[in-house]
Design goal:
By secondary structure, the protein is of the alpha/beta class. It is 43% helix and 16% strand. The protein contains ten helices and seven strands. A hairpin with a 4-residue loop joins strand 3 and strand 4. Helix 2 crosses helix 8 and helix 5 packs antiparallel against helix 6. The structure holds 2'-deoxyadenosine-5'-diphosphate. The site of 2'-deoxyadenosine-5'-diphosphate has 15 residues, from helix 2 and helix 8.
Length: 224
C-alpha cells in the first residue's frame, strides 16, 4: 500500500515548523513538546518509529538500550533472561543531564522502561506503541529470545504495562496510544505527527484491549 508522507509545504502537522510554532498562553503542553518518549513493550517498533520521528522533526534520537550499553549503566548481565541489569540510579542521573543538555534541540527517547528512571518535566509527552500480542511474539521469536522471556513481554503487553506507567508519570493529557498492528513505519510516523499536533491526549475509548481479543491461557500455551 502506498503511504502518503507528510508535506511540510502544505502546513502539514508533521512539519518541524508546525510542531514548535505558535505557543499562545494556555496552549496545550504538546505544542511545546521537547522530550518525546516513545515507549512500549520490546519489539513493538519503538526504535524504527523513534528514529523516523527524530529525523522528521529535527530532534536528537536517544535509545535506552544503546545508552545503557555504551555508557555501561548496568550492574551486570542476567544470563537467564539475556538482559543487562540496569543501574537505575546511575541511569536516572545520566538521563537528567542528557535531557537538560539536549532539550533545546528536542529529544525523541526510545525506552521500554519509564518508571522509575524518568521524571516528569515541562514539555514531556509519551507515545505508547501497542502491538497485537501474536505479532509481538513472532517478532520476539525472531530475536531468538527464550520462550519465558517472550511470554513475560507478551504478558506485559496484554496488561498494558507501558501504558499504565506512562499515564502514571504524565497523566492522560500528555500520553498518546497508537496501535501499530498492520501499519508500515511511514504510516505510523504520519499518525504520530497527526496526534501530536492535535494534542488531545489519551482516551479509554480508543485504547487497545488485548484481553478482550485473546484468552491469556490460550496465548501462553501457544508461546510457552
Ligand atoms: P523495539 O524498539 O520496540 O524493540 P524495533 O523498532 O527494534 O522494536 O522493531 C522490532 C522489529 O520489528 C524489527 O525487526 C523491525 C520490525 N518493525 C518495526 N516496526 C515495524 C512496522 N511498523 N511494521 C513491520 N515491522 C516493523
Amino acid at each position: 500500500m502506498a503511504e502518503s508522507m507528510p508535506d511540510s509545504r502544505s502546513g502539514d502537522p508533521g512539519s518541524k515548523a508546525s510542531i514548535g510554532r505558535r505557543v499562545p498562553a494556555g496552549a496545550p503542553e504538546q505544542s511545546l513538546a521537547k522530550i518525546i518518549i516513545v515507549t512500549g513493550t520490546p519489539g513493538v517498533g519503538k526504535t524504527v518509529l523513534g528514529r523516523l520521528l527524530a529525523e522528521k522533526i529535527g530532534s536528537t534520537f536517544l535509545s535506552l538500550g544503546d545508552l545503557v550499553k555504551m555508557e555501561r549503566l548496568y550492574k551486570g548481565f542476567d544470563h537467564q533472561v539475556r538482559s543487562y541489569i540496569i543501574d537505575e540510579l546511575a541511569l536516572e542521573r545520566r538521563l537528567k543531564g542528557y535531557f537538560t543538555a539536549h532539550r533545546e534541540k528536542g529529544i525523541v527517547f526510545e525506552t521500554h522502561f519509564v518508571s522509575p528512571i524518568i521524571h516528569k518535566t515541562r514539555g514531556m509527552v509519551a507515545i505508547v506503541l501497542r502491538l497485537d500480542p501474536i505479532i509481538l511474539a513472532r517478532r520476539l521469536r525472531a530475536r531468538r529470545w527464550p520462550k519465558r522471556k517472550i511470554w513475560d513481554n507478551v504478558e506485559a503487553e496484554m496488561i498494558d504495562l507501558s501504558l499504565y506507567d506512562s499515564l502514571k508519570l504524565l497523566g492522560k493529557t500528555r500520553v498518546y496510544e497508537i496501535d501499530a498492528t498492520g501499519k508500515h513505519p511511514p504510516e505510523l510516523l504520519h499518525e504520530t505527527l497527526r496526534i501530536l499536533s492535535r494534542g488531545k491526549g489519551w482516551s479509554f475509548s480508543s485504547s487497545s484491549d488485548w484481553l478482550e481479543r485473546y484468552d491469556p491461557v490460550f496465548l501462553s500455551r501457544r508461546i510457552l
